[in-house]
Amino acid sequence: MKRGVQAGILAAVVMLSTGAASEMTVGEFLAGMKKAESMGPAALLSSDVRALRAESDRVRELYVADITRQKKAGGKMHSCPPASDRPKMTGEELRQYLSSLPPSAQKKPFRVAVYDLMKKKFPCK
């Protein structure tokens, strides 16, 4: 019984910590990038940079999982990246895209913006 309660609490914490409410917005991501750029080489040791990298990695893993699931299901694809399933994108390319978004779009989750970019960069033909 005690293990069941502990497992339930752990599951709730995981769900709360990865839920949509905790997602970084485009504006927050851009602000973090600007801050990191202003720090120069010291940015490599910054917790801000680690947070940006963690968010980028999280979104990339979500995207790859979604694309893989869509391929297996055989239905409509969100976007069609190269066969490697590990689409490449430079930090500069991402920064330019995010910076080009209007202020209203910078309030949306970073994840949504990345998915939009992938759809634009790798359209299904």
From TrEMBL:
Span of the signal peptide: 1-20
Swiss-Prot/TrEMBL keywords: Signal
Protein name: Rap1a immunity protein domain-containing protein
Gene source species: Sphingomonas ursincola
